[in-house]
Design brief:
With 156 residues, the chain is of the alpha+beta class. The protein has 5 helices and 7 strands, in the order βαααβββαβαββ. The protein has a 7-stranded mixed β-sheet. It starts with a strand and ends with a strand.
Length: 156
Amino acid sequence: MKVSIIPFESKYSENFYSLNYDWLDEYFYVEPYDEQVLKNCKEEIIDKGGYIFFALYENEVVATMALLPRDNSIYELNKMAVKKELRGKGIGNKLVQFIINFCKQKKFKSIILYSNTVLNNSIHLYKKYGFKEVKSEGDTPYKRSDIKMEMQLVYS
C-alpha cells in the first residue's frame, strides 16, 4: 500500500477532526479537551510549536497524527487515527516510523504518549518501535488514559 505522509495544510483540518472524532467515539468518548484541540487544531497544535501530519492514499486523507510540545524538547505523540476500513494495513506503522525519524532529525530528547491498555494493537505497535511504559505522574490531560509510554531518542 503506497502511502505518502505530508505536513499540515489547513484544507485538511476537517479530516483531522473527523478521523480523530470517529476513532474516539468508537473506543471511548470525546472529552472536552479533545473537542477543543480537534476543532482548533492549527491554534492548539501548530501555533503552539507542534506538528500535524496526514497519510494520503490515492490522494485521500486516510490517517493523521500530531506531535505536541511538552517541555525540554519532549514531544507528545497525539491524535493518531487511521480510517476504520484501512486499519491493519500498515498505515499506523508508517506513521509511527515517520514520527520517530522526524523527531530524530529535529534532535528532540524524547517522545511520550498517553494511551489505554484496552487498545492492545496500539500498545503492541508502540512497544514494537521501542516505547516503554513509564510512571505517570498524574500529568495526563485525558480521563481515558491509564498508561504513559516514552521513547528516549539516542544520537550517535
